Amino acid sequence: MSRSFERYQRRKLISSYFSVVLSIGLVLFLLGILGLLVINTKKLANHFKEQVAVTVFLKDNAKEVEVTQLQKSLAMAPYTKTARFISKEEAAEQHSKEIGENFLEFLGHNPLQNSIEVHLKANYVESDSIRVIADKLAGKDYIAEVAYDQPLVSLLNENVKRISLWILIASSAFTLIAVLLINSSIRLSIYSKRFIIKTMQMVGATKSFIRRPFIMKSVQLGILGAVIALLSIGGLLYYLSGKYPQLGLFDDLPVIGMLFAAIFLGGIVITWISTYIATQRFLNLRTDDLYY
């Protein structure tokens, strides 16, 4: 009979520990995913910004040496990511593919101009910066026009700022929720041992002596939950990196390492603080209050 009761107690204890580890691991996993989203928000924003093109249209009488020098100077400029020369023939071919018919046959000549398509670095994709660059280029005699999508640039920057703000708010809110959830799991786990805590206190054990094993066990569970979360995040990163290599998820390994370290330490610190507060609460309760 006593063995059956011991096995029951052991299963109950293991089930309690398992639920705590699972809840800690799940919360830390979701917190890590949100952290990855925060880290990669700027990278994604920069990716979209660098898709905006500034097109420099050249006059028909532009000399070849002038065009070559312009392309080289643009390619070496600090604000340029890529600079590609597009001949009027190539532009006509692209336009024909887009409209689905050969417009040259209808017009009898090619009205398009030679151009250089410039993609700027993300830091320079701002309305004021692009305007300064465009005005500087437009001042050259052999350049007919400098064109770019001004409304798109403004809209892109506004949306990036708006999304970054909401992600920051969501991150703060979710961090608070994560702490509360882990604290709740730890508190429920210790609640089942409240009579043991009070019994130890009644036989003369000090508060620090009573707290120590509970804190050590909770920290161990926090470490286990953090390891599970980190392995899950690592597996997800590996999968996404293999399927979408263009995202460059492993390009910032030091930053990812710092995130992993923060998650691991978070699992330890949160469980330590939650256990300390929970045990302190039951230590300060009167015996009669333990039944409520």
**pLDDT averaged residue by residue:** 79
- Bin the helical content: over 70%
> Based on helices, strands and strand pairing, what is the structural class?
alpha+beta
The strand count comes to: 4
- What is the H-and-E element order? HEHEHHEHEHHHH
Description:
By secondary structure, the chain is of the alpha+beta class. It has two domains: 182 residues, no CATH class; 96 residues, 2-Layer Sandwich (Alpha-Beta Plaits). It is built from nine helices and four strands, in the order αβαβααβαβαααα.
List the helices and strands and how they pair.
Elements: H1 2-49, E1 53-58, H2 64-76, E2 80-86, H3 88-99, H4 103-107, E3 115-120, H5 127-138, E4 143-147, H6 150-191, H7 194-202, H8 207-243, H9 253-284
Antiparallel strand pairs: 1-3, 1-4, 2-3
Helix pairs in contact: 1-6, 1-8, 1-9, 6-9, 8-9
List keywords for this structure.
single chain; 292 residues; alpha+beta; Alpha-Beta Plaits; 2 domains; four-stranded antiparallel β-sheet; 8% strand; rod-shaped
In short:
By secondary structure, the chain is an alpha+beta fold. It has nine helices and four strands, in the order αβαβααβαβαααα. The protein has two domains: 2-47 and 156-291, no CATH class; 53-148, Alpha-Beta Plaits (2-Layer Sandwich), CATH 3.30.70.3040.
